[in-house]
Predict the structure.
Amino acid sequence: MTQKGNIGVTTENIFPVIKKFLYSDHEIFLREIVSNAVDASQKLKTLASKGELQGEAGDLTVHVSVDKEAGTLTVSDRGIGMTEEEIDKYINQIAFSGANDFLDKYKEDANAIIGHFGLGFYSSFMVSKKVEIITKSWKEGSKAVKWSCDGSPEFSIDEADKTDRGTDIVMYIDDDCKDFLEEGKISDLLNKYCKFLAVPVAFGKKKEWKDGKQVETDEDNVINDTKPLWTRKPADLKDEDYKEFYRKLYPMSDEPLFWIHLNVDYPFNLTGVLYFPKVKNNFDLQKNKIQLYCNQVFVTDSVEGIVPEFLTLLHGVIDSPDIPLNVSRSYLQSDQNVKKISTYISKKVSDRLKSIFTNDRKEFEDKWDDIKIFINYGMLSDESFYDKAKSFALLKDTEGKHYTFEEYQTLIKDQQTDKDGNLIYLYAQNKEEQYVYIEAAQNKGYNVLLMDGQLDTPMLGLFEQKFEKSRFTRVDSDVVDKLIVKDDVKKEDLSERDKTILTKAFQGSLPKLNKVEFMIDSQSLGESSAPVVITQSEYMRRMKDMSKLQPGMAFYGEMPDMMNLVLNSDHPLIKKVLSDAQAVAQDIEIPAPEPKEGEKKEEPKKDIKVELKDTKVVSQLIDLALLQNGMLKGEALNNFVKRSVELI
Ligand code: ADP
């Protein structure tokens, strides 16, 4: 009954097209062929369960095997098989109109082409010079047939010698694709694409160590878990099951913090488990850890557009037959179903976090440091997530206490409202480095937040947008009395002349630091405060912090740090420096430059010259302030130590 014919494609020859355009992604052929085998096996199972099958279904394991000598890769199933008519209908007559247009449009996206046109089977030609289908249908009295095609649009169908029901797909691997005959390669691909298929898939036999050698056993080497965790009922699962599944997915990761079991069947189908990973440091953060499946077949680990951007940092699995996988990414993002899925996942995540917060606040607080980055990222990038998260997101103070936004507002309202009715949130970014300032603020009855997270700088900006009449100020952005200005009265006890004399006395001893500039100012800070305090204005510092995160702001990063050196005019040591300086202060005149022709010569400028006999005390005071800020290093630190010894 030999039959010969042409494959029903309208394009001249589809195979070169397949090879050319799909080349980059050609490993997916294995997924296509194995999942066809699994489909056929599942269909058989259904027939058997309906009682339509004569005889036994038997073992339905799909077998993948490599024959290096023959140069073949074979996938065999015991599924429903195909009759000659079915081969003609499903394999020969591929609907393929407007093929060129389509290929042009989607040439980057192999998935799109393959899925869209049901070319799953034909993807085998990406790696094969010849493919054979040897198949026998489950139907009573059907004859086994062998379809064969060498990559031209011509095929042949012959009778075949096959007694058992099912299909063998025999791929004669191309010379330039020989790596698909390597056991290791096939094993890797099966592990990537077929790990959770619903019917057992065996690749060779299990091996064991015997007499110092690996030898094959009789047992099939089944490479998949046919009932992965996300397909099971949450009620039947224990914490340990979730953790174990996580270890299977990410053997190198620490135990996850939380997980969320997703399970929807209306208005779309979606199951999955998402995990909040424990990140040791921010370098660990990685997108594309979530795996996307379609009926347990691995599709991709790039889920952008399907889950909200901030959740791409999570780990886990999403499985949905309703995500249109075979379309371009831009189409995906505008798809209504996909939008619903994204909204759903975002809501599920915030609901879950909220419920942990409500039911076990202690656990939530304990894990806050680890989950903070996800929640902050979500709040920054997704308005609707912010609205949900604002009731459970936390602020942590330098003492390690946690507060909700509302709780914190109540806490600081009385002490930290300024004269204009603004609530001033004080924060530190480093508990050690800003210790002195934190302590000073606390002594004044203020609370100080710890904002040392990777996303805290942009969070400050977000909070200032969202919280009414609120400002965030770092504890060292001004002397403690001025951090929160409560009245307009300005205590000014030094005359302008004395201020200038004091400034001059310190100016000559200022250290030369790379990219740091100092402005000297004197203020009355009380006798018990430090003689010299270094501060840095909130605005400039924050701009510089932001510039590290946003390339567009690099300009700010280039600017020097502007620091204020505040001299406490109430302190006895500063008073002493002032009187020494007054004693040597000289009024001088700086002559104006020679005028250009026709212009009048300007008056000389008046100035004061201060040359202290001994600058040790001044240098010592400056260095102590620098030391408190961690700014005294290298040679300067060495000089300080030497000078200190001399003074003792
Ligand atoms: P799709 O799987 O998207 O329908 P394919 O090109 O992969 O497209 O397969 C076309 C058809 O060929 C399938 O729908 C199925 O009817 C049939 N087929 C492919 N592989 C097998 C198999 N191993 N056993 C039985 N039928 C198969």
Q: What stands out?
A: The first strand starts at residue 3 and ends at 6. The chain has 22 helices and 24 strands.
